[in-house]
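Subject: design request, 387 residues
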């Protein structure tokens, strides 16, 4: 509930700032050498359009991150589950983000969230559950593409490891060690309980990652520099090429991301459910870019607004209005054709079903903003008549 309250506070601040800024322009007296368009309509309209990027910037400042419930599991298809103790969330945040980021280059990384935390911490995405967390973990390890283990000796993690061992999921597991003493105690426990023999690891005062090769031998990588994370990625892709081959379409698009938009044959790497015309992106390209999950959306938004502003120059003439209309018509057709593809290539989507759901919900938000924007213009026009 506290996370919901934080979202409502951000929304309230955004609406308050937008309304107060927009109405402030309407009560300023019109000077003889000023036009109504540049004195009232343009600044007030700009204040309204800036509301969405203002919300994103404010969310970034306060560290707002999305959070999920167990209902989100139905949309997960391409993902990695992260198993660890809640106590590990409080230490080595930078190294933790490096490890989860290395795996997130392949698939989105999910973990069970700590129930009493106010906002999700950096790193893996969090799914918040109730007392049935064990059932959720069993389902996630079964459906996940890979499993990341941050080794410790807590009873909850030992239970999670036992589920992976009993269901033969160790082959798709990556083991991460950040404390050699803790790891040695873990090795003794699993040898007594399951008869497993894990490798000896030297105490080099650094993090270590290891995993099973297809021949059930271990590959161990000591993470001393940032380049070692890239070495780990290269080794794992080579040793487990069947995982990446079976998900080649998804991973290829994810790896190349927005560069695919510059290629003629890009559509063969984009699922059919994504290759559709978007009427929302066509009619409201500015709001679509800033509301959707488009990479560098704030930068793209300001580039578009800046281009429109430079085309209008400082005078309100027919030539300037024609340039703006021509630019916006071109933008409408480009976004209508490429909008959904741009969103798909901008982030790691958990499944096509989840992409379609988020696209539908965001389209509703964009359309509501468009309607409010039209009403805002009508109200402003009426108010100006009485000024």
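Subject: RE: design request

Done. Sequence follows.
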């Amino acid at each position: 509930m506290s996370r919901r309250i934080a979202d409502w506070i951000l929304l309230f601040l955004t609406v308050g700032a937008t309304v107060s800024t927009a109405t402030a322009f309407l009560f300023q007296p019109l000077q003889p050498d000023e036009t109504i368009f540049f004195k009232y309509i343009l600044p007030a309209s700009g204040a309204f359009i800036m509301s969405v990027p203002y919300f994103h910037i404010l969310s970034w400042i306060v560290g707002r991150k999305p959070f999920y419930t167990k209902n989100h599991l139905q949309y997960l298809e391409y993902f990695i589950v992260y198993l660890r103790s809640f106590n590990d969330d409080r230490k080595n945040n930078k190294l933790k983000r490096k490890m989860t980021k290395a795996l997130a280059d392949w698939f989105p990384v999910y973990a069970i969230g700590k129930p009493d935390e106010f906002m999700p911490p950096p790193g893996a995405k969090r799914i918040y559950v109730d007392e049935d967390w064990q059932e959720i973990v069993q389902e996630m390890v079964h459906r996940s593409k890979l499993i990341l283990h941050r080794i410790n000796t807590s009873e909850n993690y030992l239970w999670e490891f036992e589920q992976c061992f009993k269901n033969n999921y160790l082959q798709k597991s990556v083991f991460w060690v950040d404390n050699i003493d803790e790891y040695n105690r873990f090795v003794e426990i699993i040898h007594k309980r399951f008869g497993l023999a894990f490798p000896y690891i030297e105490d080099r005062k650094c993090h270590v990652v290891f995993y099973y090769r297809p021949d059930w031998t271990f590959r161990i990588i000591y993470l001393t520099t940032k380049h070692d994370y890239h070495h780990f990625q290269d080794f794992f892709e080579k040793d487990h090429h069947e995982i990446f081959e079976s998900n080649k379409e998804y991973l290829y698009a994810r790896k190349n991301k927005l560069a695919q938009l510059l290629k003629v044959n890009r559509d063969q790497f984009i699922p059919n459910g994504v290759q559709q015309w978007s009427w929302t992106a066509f009619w409201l390209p500015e709001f679509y870019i800033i509301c959707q999950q488009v990479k560098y959306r704030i930068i793209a938004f300001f580039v578009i607004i800046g281009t429109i502003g430079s085309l209008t120059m400082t005078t309100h003439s027919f030539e300037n209005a024609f340039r703006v209309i021509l630019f916006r018509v071109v933008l409408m057709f480009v976004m209508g054709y490429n909008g959904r593809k741009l969103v798909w290539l901008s982030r790691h989507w958990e499944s096509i079903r989840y992409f379609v759901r988020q696209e539908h919900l965001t389209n509703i938000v964009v359309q509501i903003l468009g309607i409010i924007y039209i009403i805002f213009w009508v109200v402003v026009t009426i108010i100006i008549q009485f000024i």
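The mean pLDDT is 80.
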